[in-house]
Amino acid sequence: MNKYMQGNSKSLIETVLVLLLLISLMWALYDVLKVFLGVMTFALIFSVSFARVFERLVRLLKNRRKLAAVIYSVLLIALIALPSIFIVSAIRTYIRDAIHYIGQVRANGIPALPAWVVELPTVGPDIADFWSQLQSSPKGIVAHHEEQIMFALRHILSSGLDILTTAGQVILGIFISAFFLVSGAQIMAPIKLTAIHLLGRRNGLTLLGATAQAIKSVSMGVMGTAFIAAVLAWIGLAIAGVEFSLVLAGLIFFLVLIQLGPLLVWVPLVVWSAVQGHTGVTIFLIIYGIGLLVIDAFLKPVLIAKSGGKLPFLVLFVGVIGGLAAWGFTGMFKGAIILAISYTLYSSWLEGKRLSRKRESRIFKQPKPLA
């Protein structure tokens, strides 16, 4: 008996040690790979969103998948590079204009505000008062608000670095998504075999299907929101008569895709229109920009949840919102996948219990054989 107990204790200790080792290895693996979570997120978005288009391109090229991957990568990178080039050229233009404006201010003083700004309800008098103080004592105002100005400059600089970093992640994500699309179903084979081995064929395939559907839903929701926001922005800019409206719409598509939103384009446009004295256009752009902001905030989770297939709307909606609040951009995928897997496991457990009770009731209802 003692030998039996000692053997069981030794086996239990060995099992616990193996589990601790596996947990440590998984944690270390996560630390190594978490740097690439943003890149892998964009890779998933592009590979899922453009899978059908890629397969059509493969058929058009007579099943030459590698050539299709090269064409796919070049086209997508061109779409990302064009807005980036426009950003750099626009920044150069704005810097040159700002230097010219500073020279005029030094020579002629700060100009008066347009009349329509002074006449704005509620905020107009405050703006006029601040502007008059700035005209009379610019150095004093700058010294008084030095902390806020430095904070704004730091924020602008960090935002620019974030855009460049995210643009790099997007480009790497395009290359990795090309590898995913070239491999096709082969890349999922090891994961599929592991799930079947651990959970059984039925439960393993169900769980993989729920995970794939969650990833597809988030990808289609993110791409769909960016596309709709870009189209609506192009319509609004065309109505307002803004030059380069198509390029600006492409830039808004990129910014909505990387979760920075349309305001980085829209606010400078509103300021530029106000400085030029176009009162009607400025008011139109403000109202239209609020509409774009609402679409960016609310359309994304709705599209994600609507494209969830068999997964309930509420499961994906809560997963996306909760994940976004907890982990940021990549959290949309994490939250959706976690909620989808939890819901699938819970549903499978309930289904198993229901079938078990059904079998038991059939056994009890069978007539007993006569003696």
User: What is the terminal separation in angstroms?
Assistant: 44 Å
Work out the oligomeric state of the chains in this entry.
single chain
Alpha carbon gyration radius: 29 Å
Overall pLDDT metric: 75
Number of domains: 1
How many individual β-strands? 0
Give the low-pLDDT segments: none
Class inferred from helices and paired strands: mainly alpha
Taken as a percent bin, the fraction of beta residues is under 5%
- What is the number of helices? 15
N-to-C order of helices and strands: HHHHHHHHHHHHHHH
**For the report, how would you describe the main beta sheet?**
none
Helix content: over 70%
Q: What is the general shape?
A: elongated
Describe the structure in your own words.
By secondary structure, the protein is an all-alpha fold. It has one domain (37-350). Helices cover 85% and strands 0% of the residues. The chain has 15 helices and no strands. It has helices at residues 2-33, 37-49, 51-60, 65-108, 115-118, 124-136, 138-144, 146-183, 189-199, 201-240, 245-257, 263-275, 279-306, 313-327, 331-365. The longest helix is centred in the first third of the chain and has 44 residues, at 65-108.
Task: Briefly say what this structure is.
This protein is mainly α and 371 residues long. It has helices spanning 2-33, 37-49, 51-60, 65-108, 115-118, 124-136, 138-144, 146-183, 189-199, 201-240, 245-257, 263-275, 279-306, 313-327, 331-365. The longest helix is centred in the N-terminal third of the chain and has 44 residues, at 65-108.
How do the strands and helices of this protein lay out in sequence?
Layout: H1 2-33, H2 37-49, H3 51-60, H4 65-108, H5 115-118, H6 124-136, H7 138-144, H8 146-183, H9 189-199, H10 201-240, H11 245-257, H12 263-275, H13 279-306, H14 313-327, H15 331-365
Helix pairs in contact: 2-8, 2-10, 3-4, 4-8, 4-11, 6-7, 9-10, 10-11, 10-13, 10-15, 12-13, 13-14, 14-15
